[in-house]
Amino acid sequence: MQNNSQRTLGSHLENKMKKIALAVSAALLAGASMAADVTVYGVVDTGFSYTNSRDKDTTYEIHLSTSKKSFSMDSGNTAGSRWGLKGSEDLGNGYKVGFVLESGFSSDTGKGSDDGLFNRESAIYVSGGFGTVYAGRMGSLISDAGSVGWYGAMASPFGSGWGGIAGHEAVMRMQGRKNNTLVYMSPRFSGLQFSAQYSMGDEGNENKSFTDRYAAIGVDYRAGNLEIGFLADYMNKSTAPYSYWDEDDPRDFIDQNAWTINLAANYDCGFAKTFIAAQYFRNVSDFTSVTEGFSIWETEDWLQSDQVKKNYIKDTDRETSLKGFGVNLGVDIPVFGGNVMASIGYADADYRQEKEKIGKLKGYTALAGYQYPLSKRTSVYAGAGYTQYKLTFSDSAGSYKRTKFQAMTGLKHTF
Q1: Torsion of CA 325, 327, 393, 305, to 10 degrees
Q2: pLDDT in tens, 68-86
Q3: Domain residue spans of the chain
Q4: Domain 44-414: CATH superfamily, name plus number
């Protein structure tokens, strides 16, 4: 039989436990309330690819021809595999603060990116009646990536491309993700939206000549089924010292200020959506690594070591630039519950070395694919594409030719 002190102690403990339970419940409810506006999302895209690439080199009496064929499981054929967190808080009076943290990974291996945890996007933003201001790492306006990349998505039915076939990016100078970036996007007035971007460059060298600094402005107009976009961008290239030619000033050999002018439109007429995009580019370093392999210095035997050879090639590639234009046409047609997409593109450019034209580069791309939704979040796809680049030297020293064919199929799931 319990005495009064035991009953009092038991009652006290019982009340204490009730208070702890209530406190825990309140904390959990508060946490759930606070997290109610945070979303976990992602894409898993895994498929198979057959690739056949060829290189033919006839420069300076060199006659080399190589061919590579492969069949592989790949991640991100139609959309980069990723996971992310995004959320926002209403500050009142029409103002909101939010964030996006997005990380890429390879769904075929499970490996993350070497570029950091949230390599695809790491941004905070403030929005209101004035529009939205973003800060952090994010896609460029000219891309189709992340929260602010709008031009690439409206310029082509394939966006940045499928698999190893880059679509319109194969014939134009596009830009990827940028660190230390500010972006402003206005509200849409009468169909018009203005956007601007400035990227300060690499960490620790922001706004210095030792890093690439990038800026872009654009206007997007929508009216019914018609969308038209204009964008201009500018790259102030790094003038960091050479690795190999350490006695030379890079500014004497590099076309430092690169820029592009871009115009694109698409129109949905019901039975098909058509796309057209055009770009004029000047002093751009490259597009989709087209000049990779177009360098006789890679075969030089007198370079003493692998690292010296890498430094030599890196310095020489900095002196390469392109000046010319690219055009791309595309179509997206609903067929049997899915979508048939196709695009073709052409590029014509002066190939420059040390600020002098030394050759002519021409590029071609063609891409076709079909995507069928199994549900709102899951789809299957199949496609094939072809790219060709040919660099002909002005002094009749020969030419390089690179071609790639790729066929791919797979499954994409979003969550």
Answers
A1: 90
A2: 999 999 999 999 999 999 9
A3: 44-414
A4: Porin (2.40.160.10)
